[in-house]
Amino acid sequence: MSVAYGIAKPPTYADIERLPEHLTGEILDGELVVSPRPAAPHTRTASALGTLINGPFDLGIGGPGGWWIMDEPELSLGVDPRYDPVVPDIAGWRRETMPSVPMTAQFHTRPDWVCEILSPGTQRHDRVLKLPFYARAGIAHCWLVDPLAQTLEVFRLKGQHWLLAQSFGGDETVRAEPFEAVELPLASLWDRGPT
Alpha helix (H) ranges present in the chain? Predict the structure, then answer.
């Protein structure tokens, strides 16, 4: 809750807009959650994963295409006002779900896939608050990537609950849903680069 003149009020998008540039904000469970920009392992993993998926799935280079892949989109899905906006690290939409990219800062179309890169300061929010919200929003797939533990957890929505569909780690080369058409070398995601 934000506090104005001693009265608690729900946070709004205006509260996020007032944040300094070096901070990011989301509204999770009715609370304004403010975080500094991520540390190097988080940024490295997010950049590498975006590169591995964007080429074959967004651009159609060496893969099937048919997706929009976006870094840190603001999701305003109309599911729960206590979670608006929510910002995943990476999200993807099948082009049949979202035929064109909106001209606004916020995305109102539910993504088909979201990915959170876990860090010590965010993993509780990612697991306890955002993962259940993504299920309530009906997002079909969610990945949790931990650059320190060097793991990838692949979740598939079944009804209103997540099913851990796949779990990978270390230097494995994997095919992970919904992007199983292309192999992903996990070693590329960690700070040491490909083996």
Answer: 13-17, 40-53, 123-124, 131-136
**Tens digits of per-residue pLDDT, 109-144?**
999 999 999 998 889 999 999 999 999 999 999 999
Q: What is the pTM of this model?
A: 0.84
Contact indicator for 169, 66 with CB cutoff of 8 Å: no
Residue 132: Cβ-neighbour burial (10 angstroms; 0-12, 13-18, 19+): middle
Express each pLDDT in 58-96 by its tens digit.
999 999 999 999 999 999 999 999 999 999 999 999 999
Closest to 190 (Cα-Cα) out of 117, 134, 137, 141: 117
**Structural domains in the chain, sorted by start:** 39-189 (3.90.1570.10)
